[in-house]
Design goal:
With 385 residues, the chain is α/β, with parallel strands linked by helices. It has 16 helices and ten strands. A four-stranded parallel sheet has the order 5-6-7-8.
């Protein structure tokens, strides 16, 4: 593939983009200028997805060339018991509800060790805000995994969970993070951000940590050397303005700390939620979110398509609309599937490699921190569905 940095292609594309109603904004992005709030809102109100997507692809290739990253990982959702009952969540349960569960540390460790034996380099561990589990349960969980699997990276606990644990432990967020890091925590996932708008959070998740609170937890994590991802849940009741406000808040914190590794847009799945009367996000909205995020988040190195939520086919298409990371093998994801996701619960390494190559991209296995993984032999059958 000839990358978009080629000067002849750049000139031809600039001429083509003159036909776009958002030409002035796309020209700014092509020349590396930072887009502002009004630019982002205008892009969302434009239906010129091919031009927007192409410029997002140019930005993506400038940052990452033709590479598409993937990881051999496993999700462990240790409990769905949660004191918060967000309207967009189909996963959470009260302790007395049918279908509620909590894993003991032995079961969690067993899953972790099995994943590592099958080639996983990352464990992604999140769950509900359990009202009864004590802080030492989480400390010992991380410590036992770290001691038994010292070479695997433990990415665990959303910012919302961290704030919950700090309350359980009667510690500051900073001290909570320090103790978890000492036990073996490697980084934080990006979940729980939802949309930062106070109005939206009051409507959908009034008991949840605020948007500013989420950002503060991430700020503390970054200053302690714990990197993290960032997310945005879209396709429910938010507006274009809400989305751009969210992206700009992430961009501001990234300017300050540089601690975010990737941005992961998360498409809302309405089935089995209190918003089940709403339609799922369209493919047009999915591609807009991805492309505009790539253009707005100029200080993020990576935009990830979480194929579990986006779907395999659209994830593959997204590799030409700004995405450079397809996530990983995953296995046993419960949260999105509780909301009716029809994607598999896992992909094999070979399936991911084929998906990337069919899109004309170069697959690169990475670890959590985006270091290339070198294997003596490709783990073709790791973490099969």
């Amino acid at each position: 593939m000839i990358l978009a940095s080629n000067s002849d292609i750049f000139i031809k594309m600039e001429k083509l983009l003159r036909s776009s109603l958002a030409y002035d904004i796309l020209q700014k992005a092509m020349h590396g200028e930072r887009l502002d709030f009004d630019d982002g809102v205008r892009l969302f109100k434009s239906n010129d997805i091919l031009h927007i997507g192409h410029v997002a692809n140019i930005v993506r290739e400038r940052k990452n060339g033709n590479r598409v990253y993937y990881i051999t990982n496993r999700h462990i959702n240790y409990s769905n018991i949660c004191k918060n009952r967000c309207k967009f969540c189909a996963f959470s349960r009260e302790k007395e509800d049918a279908g509620s569960y909590e894993m003991d540390r032995e079961e969690i460790l067993e899953k972790a060790m099995a994943a590592v034996e099958e080639g996983a380099t990352e464990l992604h561990i999140v769950g509900g805000l359990h009202p009864d589990l004590p802080f030492y349960f989480y400390i010992e969980m991380i410590r036992e995994i770290h001691e038994s699997c010292p070479d695997v990276h433990i990415q665990a606990f959303t910012a919302v969970e961290i704030e919950h644990l700090s309350q359980k432990a009667s510690l500051s967020v900073r001290q909570t993070l320090k103790e978890l890091k000492e036990a073996g925590l490697g980084s934080l996932p990006g979940g729980g951000a939802e949309v930062f708008s106070p109005k939206i959070r009051e409507q959908l998740c009034p008991e949840k940590l605020s948007g500013d609170g989420w950002l503060q937890v991430m700020r503390e994590a970054h200053t302690l050397g714990l990197r993290s991802n960032a997310t945005m849940l879209y396709g429910h009741v938010e507006t274009a303005e809400d989305r751009i406000h969210h992206l700009m808040k992430l961009r501001e914190l990234q300017d300050e700390t540089g601690g975010f590794m990737s941005f992961i847009p998360l498409a809302f799945h309405p089935k089995n939620t209190e918003l089940s009367n709403r339609s799922s996000a369209t493919a047009m909205l999915d591609l807009k979110i991805i492309s505009i995020s790539r253009l707005m988040l100029d200080n993020f190195d990576h935009i990830k398509a979480f194929w579990i939520m986006l779907g395999i086919k659209l994830s593959q298409i997204s590799l030409s609309f700004g995405v450079d990371d397809i996530d990983g093998t995953v296995q046993e994801e419960k949260i999105t599937h509780a909301a009716g996701a029809e994607t598999p619960e896992a992909l094999s390494v070979q399936e991911i490699i084929n998906l990337i190559k069919e899109a004309g991209r170069e697959p690169v296995e990475r670890d959590t921190l985006y270091n290339p993984v070198k294997r003596k032999k490709t783990v073709v059958h790791a973490l099969m569905p």
